[in-house]
Design goal:
The structure is a single chain. The protein is 34% helix and 22% strand. It is α/β, with parallel strands linked by helices. The chain has four domains: 4-153, Methylthiotransferase, N-terminal domain (Rossmann fold); 165-285, 2-Layer Sandwich (Transcription Regulator spoIIAA); 294-405, 2-Layer Sandwich (Transcription Regulator spoIIAA), CATH 3.30.750.200; 410-464, OB fold (Dihydrolipoamide Acetyltransferase, E2P). Helix 13 (341-354) packs parallel to helix 14 (381-404). The longest helix is centred in the C-terminal third of the chain and has 24 residues, at 381-404. The chain starts with a strand and ends with a strand. Bound molecules: 5'-deoxyadenosine and iron/sulfur cluster. Iron/sulfur cluster binds at residues 184, 186-188, 191, 193-194, 228-229, 266. 5'-deoxyadenosine (5AD) binds at residues 77-78, 190-191, 291, 293, 331, 333, 362, 364-365, 367.
């Protein structure tokens, strides 16, 4: 196995690369393929790296077999995405057997969590970059290319470094993401995020505004602000203190921006001021993703969530008072250690009570190093699976019922492109529902009004008015 270099924050710089090699302009790989797993933050990071490569003359391809560089952007939040990452890596290792010059990099949360383990176990992996090291991507790639070394960079820089953005990558898109903060300070007992994404750090409003303006210039019409906990955005500027509400107000003034969204919010930090922004800021879409995780106060306490079931329900009431019809989506877990039938019933009861527009639901899985991992009374997988299936059946009924209520309504849709099947146009309502309808490609990027004809679980079928 070739030697593994371990770089610590800021240790890697161009002086490490022998000038002779730089001058020779080693032939650079020309095609890349990125596989992204996990959340929108990973999608955003993958986009950044794609832009950086395009800027350096490397172009994207649709299949890993045709690539010279393959990046796997991993997720570590649950056991399932972790297993998916290992199985994808297995496939990439067989491709690398056929093409030993292929460069294989692993990035994202699993890369951070298992950095040394991955590089030691799998000689096929050329480099590992953690989420706070992405700004060194171009240098790392060059170094791997030139001296065929292997690199691990999984430091915990206070601010995530980002690669320089290229232009042109977003030109075919209508909706884009911008990260405004990263990391989490909450340490919910089950969650690996604070360990792999680090402590909360907000980006400067100046940096955010530049990135938003760039996307608008590229033709993007809808921006989703990203962060593990956007509500705790904070920036102490020379002119003023920026909290999340101030940032939303400022961004909504940009003329070319049609729609603004954000995700994810933590219930314990959802201020009245932020709730009122759904009324006050016209461009802010009436949709909030507000993970509740469990309906039982006993489990919420064990999870260290910092709110009660009653406080959560109060927030829902306020949101609906301030913005009637607001779409509410959430995350929930079943089978947390010690969860009894009565606790699970309280979760089902909360679902019936709130009637979420849609819900992401998961079986609890142990994450190494979290405090829940060390808890007693783990729930058997068969019980978790049975609870998940009951919960998902209930939510399906609710989602379908809510979607059916939209039949016959006129709704505004931002047209995003062609639908995957049937050659129709596809877009989303302000409440984030996917709508498919017949129409001319020239409508892509504009707001249209449609009549909802039929509702399904995951989409609505409509006609242009
Ligand atoms: N097991 C199961 N689900 C988890 N989540 C976070 N950690 C775990 C875990 N250990 C879920 C939460 C979170 C979503 C992103 O993933 O519901 O909101
Ligand atoms: Fe994880 Fe809790 Fe932070 Fe969300 S708020 S990222 S669940 S620790």
């Amino acid at each position: 196995m070739s030697k593994v270099k371990e770089f610590h924050p800021f240790e890697l710089n161009s002086e490490r690369i022998p000038q002779a090699f730089l001058m020779k302009e080693i032939s650079l790989p020309k095609h890349f393929y990125i596989k992204t797993m996990g959340c929108q933050m990973n999608a955003y990071d993958s986009d950044s790296l794609a832009q950086a490569m395009i800027k350096d003359g490397i172009s994207p391809v649709n299949t890993p077999e045709n690539a010279d560089i393959i990046l796997l952007n991993t997720c570590a939040v649950r056991a399932k995405p972790e297993q998916k990452a290992y199985s994808f890596l297995g496939r990439m290792f067989s491709i690398k057997k056929e093409n030993p010059d292929l460069i294989l990099g692993v990035i994202g949360c699993l890369a951070q969590m298992k950095a040394l383990d991955l590089i030691k176990r799998f000689p096929e992996i050329d480099f590992i970059l953690g989420p706070r090291e992405l700004g060194r991507f171009q240098e790392v790639l060059k170094t791997v290319e030139i001296d065929h070394g292997r690199i691990v960079a999984a430091g915990s820089n206070p601010a995530p470094l980002r690669p320089e953005h290229g232009k042109g990558y977003f030109e075919k898109r209508v909706a884009g993401y911008v990260s405004i903060m990263e990391g989490c300070n909450n340490f919910c007992s089950y969650c690996i995020v604070p360990y792999v994404r680090g402590r909360e750090i907000s980006r400067s409003p100046h940096e955010i505004l530049i990135e938003v303006e760039n996307l608008l210039t590229a033709g993007i019409k809808e921006i989703t602000l990203l962060g593990q906990n956007v509500n705790s955005y904070l920036w102490d500027g020379r002119d003023k203190k920026w909290n999340f509400r101030v940032l939303l107000d400022e961004l909504s003034r940009l003329d070319r921006l049609l729609r603004l969204r954000f995700t994810t919010s933590h219930p314990k930090d959802l201020s009245d001021d932020l709730i009122h922004s759904f009324h006050d800021i016209r461009k802010l879409c009436p949709h909030i993703h507000l993970p509740f995780q469990a309906g039982s106060n006993r489990i919420l306490k064990l999870m260290r969530r910092g709110y009660t079931r009653e406080a959560y329900l109060e927030l829902i009431k306020k949101l609906r008072q301030v913005k009637p019809g607001i779409a509410i989506t959430s995350d929930v877990m079943v089978g947390f250690p010690g969860e009894m039938d009565e606790d699970f019933e309280l979760t089902l009861d909360l679902l019936r009570n709130v009637e979420f527009d849609s819900l992401f639901s998961f079986k609890y899985s142990d994450r190494s190093g979290t405090s829940a991992e060390a808890m007693n009374n783990k729930i058997r997988d068969s019980v978790k699976a049975a609870r998940l299936s009951v919960l998902q059946d209930l939510q399906k009924e609710i989602t379908l019922k809510k979607n059916k209520e939209l039949e016959g309504k006129r709704l505004e849709v931002l047209v995003e492109g062609k639908s995957k099947r049937g050659g129709q146009l596809t877009g989303r309502t302000v409440s984030n529902k996917v709508v498919n309808f017949n129409g001319n490609n020239s409508l892509i990027g504009s707001l249209v009004t449609v009549n909802i004809k039929r509702s399904f679980l995951n989409s609505l079928r409509a006609e242009l008015t």
